[in-house]
Design brief:
CATH architecture of the largest domain in chain A: 3-Layer(aba) Sandwich
Distance between the termini of chain A: 55 Å
Structural class of chain A: alpha/beta
CATH class of chain B: Alpha Beta
Number of domains of chain B: 1
Largest sheet of chain A: 5 strands, mixed, barrel
Radius of gyration of chain A: 31 Å
CATH class of the largest domain in chain A: Alpha Beta
Distance between the termini of chain B: 42 Å
Shape of chain B: globular
CATH topology of the largest domain in chain A: Rossmann fold
Structural class of chain B: alpha/beta
Strand content of chain B: 15-25%
Order of helices and strands of chain B: EHEEEEEEHEHEHHEHEHEHEHEEHEEHE
Largest interface: A-B, 40 and 43 residues
Oligomer: heterodimer
Helix content of chain B: 25-40%
Strand content of chain A: 15-25%
Chain lengths: ~325, ~325
């Protein structure tokens, strides 16, 4: 279910008609898929009203849409996606900002209407548009953990005294445009495709291995600076297909090959660790190496029940060496 | 280039401000204090691409900072001076993306006060060479055609042979520098990466070839030059690529004239790493596996980064750089 928030009934009237929304309260309208909330002006009012409605319906997305004044050279009637929302109070920005999209323009939500050119001038460096409520809706969406989008239609130039009249005069036209636009974005944001499972003939992918494969493929592609398709073509798929093991096992081996190619150090370290553990295990010593390979010291432990056993261990220590470990930690490694 | 230019009211008649504004040809906005606006709200780092603001301000508070251990060559005190915040370039690994709340640039204009602080520091270290680094929070050359402060720092070096100034840069904007006579204690150091890697991670910066050319120009003019291979990032052909870079440097005669070469493997604070992941999800940086290391920073694990530094150190020595001029930057036990 989508929650659409708008500030005023004036800008929402066509939305209510065209989306066939039923009036529930003076501020709330709905159909089966959409709830429209009129928040009024002011960031705190918008935040409070949005937060209150979030507990009542299972929303998958919140869209704030409405009019805004421009601080730059945008055309009246133009609808722009919002990238980031800032709050300004007494012309000073507040710390919290909210992301509404990866592309678009930046909108300042102001506690006051910006009616003087001096004030508008001071805000020009902070954003492209000014509105009165979007930041509050974004804050409620963020708190509720619900995806948030925002679109603004340019209604006037911020800092002009005639801005309010202009908005009133064109309310119907603005509302029609917003409704048309809203219909397109609500229909495109309906589906949320689940991640597709990986498919390669001869291999069997579970969801986990599919995720691992895709992750490794992306990293290899980044590391080798080549497209994923080229990376796949360079993998030993034919050789692995010929192995007389199950498709699931072939996938495991494929992932091993990719991990080694991505991080040759991992295999070297594992190999050295195995050798070291084996040499210490001959005398029933156990060694623990920092799993992050960050600490240049390791822990050796053993069990002894009496002095004789202890002396035996002391003698055994003299035959052991940590030279290979020291070399490893100092980067003395042979990497192809 | 600039979305808006803000100037602190206190300095609006300062000759340096007048000169900068004349060059910018942009009507400024006057504010009581730059930090009434700058950094007050969290502005995403990548917004610098289309809405970068410039602030001209007076730096209050700390003008110099003691550099952390292993910042420069060992045995001498190192400070960095704060003449600007943020940078026009966009390097994918840059710690500035997680350091300030905004990518907007501040140019401080009270260089005389910074220099006076530097003189105080010198008097606290009698008989010792003291390093002053520029370029910790901003590129030290990129905007010098606008800012015009180089002459002051140059004069300071002339007056105080016991002081060493290092200008760290990726810029090839050496015009202002070339107007000054070279000094033995005025060092220009360039951050370098192999050409292919620089193309991938040093966005909106001059190419490695252009940086090497700038080094060559300065070297021929008699300037002291240095290099930083930092950050070193792992990729399959990393040895071959650094070998090629060192050969390029050698062909220009740079390796024999370097004052020093510092090596540093890529590293991030946790916050910066998170920003890098967010800002550059497709960066080659994410192809290597990293861990939380000895100082809490995110790095490659120790055997790998030591191997990388050993490899490059060995290649550097082979290409004619004297071993005693190579130091490992920000690495424990290095």
């Amino acid at each position: 279910m989508h929650l659409i928030t708008m500030a005023h009934l004036g800008e929402a009237q066509s939305v209510i008609q065209q989306l066939k929304l039923e009036r529930m309260t003076p501020e709330l309208f709905k159909n089966e898929e959409i709830v429209l909330l009129l928040t009024g002006e002011g960031p705190f009012e918008a935040a409070t009203k949005t937060a209150l409605i979030l507990s009542k319906y299972p929303f998958s997305e919140i869209i704030n849409i409405g009019i805004a004044g421009t601080l730059k050279d945008y055309n009246i009637g133009e609808i722009l996606p919002i990238r980031t929302l800032y709050l300004v109070n007494d012309l000073k920005p507040a710390f919290k900002s909210f992301k509404a999209g990866s592309e678009g323009v930046d909108c300042l939500t102001s506690f006051e209407r910006i009616l003087s050119p001096e004030k508008a001038q001071m805000l020009k460096g902070l954003g492209h548009l000014v509105d009165r409520e979007a930041w509050g809706v974004a804050m409620a969406a963020k708190t509720g953990g619900i995806p948030f989008k925002c679109y603004k239609m340019i209604s006037d130039t911020a800092g002009t005294l005639s801005a309010c009249e202009l908005v009133k005069e064109n309310a119907q036209e603005f509302s029609d445009k917003i409704a048309e636009f809203l219909k397109t974005i609500v229909s495109t944001s309906q589906t949320n495709e689940p991640e597709e499972k990986m498919a390669l003939p001869g291999f069997h992918f579970t969801f986990t291995s599919s995720h691992q494969f895709k992750n490794l493929l992306k990293k290899l592609s980044l590391k080798e600076n080549q497209e994923s398709a080229k990376v796949i073509n360079s993998l030993p798929l034919t050789e692995l297909r010929l192995l007389e093991v199950s498709p699931k096992e072939k996938t495991r081996k494929l992932i091993e090959v990719m991990e080694k190619r991505l991080n040759p150090f991992k295999a070297i370290l594992q190999d050295e660790k195995d050798k070291l553990q084996k040499s210490f295990a001959q005398h029933d010593f156990r060694i623990d190496i920092d799993p992050l390979w960050e600490k240049s010291k390791l822990t050796v432990s053993f069990e002894a029940g009496n002095d004789e056993e202890l002396q035996m261990k002391a003698l055994a220590f003299k035959t052991l060496s940590l030279q290979s470990f020291t070399k490893l930690m100092n980067g003395e490694i042979h990497v192809e | 280039m600039w979305n808006e230019v803000y100037v602190e009211e206190e300095i609006k008649n300062h000759p340096r401000v007048t000169s900068i504004l004349e060059k910018l040809k942009k009507e400024p906005l006057f504010v009581p204090r730059y930090d009434d606006i700058w950094g007050r709200s969290k502005k995403p780092y990548l917004h610098k691409r289309d809405s970068l603001n410039l602030f001209l301000a007076r730096k209050h508070g700390q003008l110099l900072k003691l550099a952390p251990d292993a910042y420069g060559s060992a045995g001498e005190p190192h400070y960095y001076f704060i003449h600007a915040y943020n940078c026009i370039y966009e390097c994918q690994y840059c710690y500035l993306q997680g350091y300030f709340n905004t990518p907007d640039i501040v140019l401080f204009i009270n260089h005389e006060e910074i220099i006076s602080e530097m003189e105080k520091v010198l008097s606290n270290h009698p008989g010792t060479k003291v390093w002053f680094h520029a370029g910790e929070f901003s590129d030290s050359l990129a905007l010098t055609h606008l800012t015009g402060e180089l002459e002051l720092y140059h004069e300071f070096c002339q007056k105080h042979p016991e002081a060493l100034i290092e200008l760290r840069t990726k810029s090839v904007n050496t015009r202002e520098l070339e107007k000054l006579p070279p000094l033995p204690n005025f060092i220009i150091s360039f951050s370098l990466s192999p050409e292919d890697m620089a193309k991938r991670i040093d966005m909106r910066t001059p190419s490695t070839k252009a940086r090497l050319q700038a080094m060559n120009t300065l070297q021929k003019a008699g300037f002291k030059i240095a290099a930083h291979f930092d950050p070193i990032i792992y990729e399959d052909k990393f040895r071959e690529r650094y070998e090629a870079l060192l050969n390029q440097m050698n062909s220009l005669g740079l390796n024999q004239s370097l004052e020093y070469l510092s090596l540093g493997v890529v590293r991030f604070t946790k916050d910066v790493y998170r920003e890098v992941e967010r800002n550059y999800p497709d960066s080659v940086i994410h192809s290597g596996s990293m861990v939380k290391s000895f100082d809490g920073k995110v790095r490659y694990h120790r055997p790998m980064r030591m191997w990388m530094m050993n490899t490059i150190k060995e290649l550097s020595i082979k290409s004619g750089i004297r071993p005693e001029l190579i130091y490992l930057c920000m690495e424990e036990d290095a």
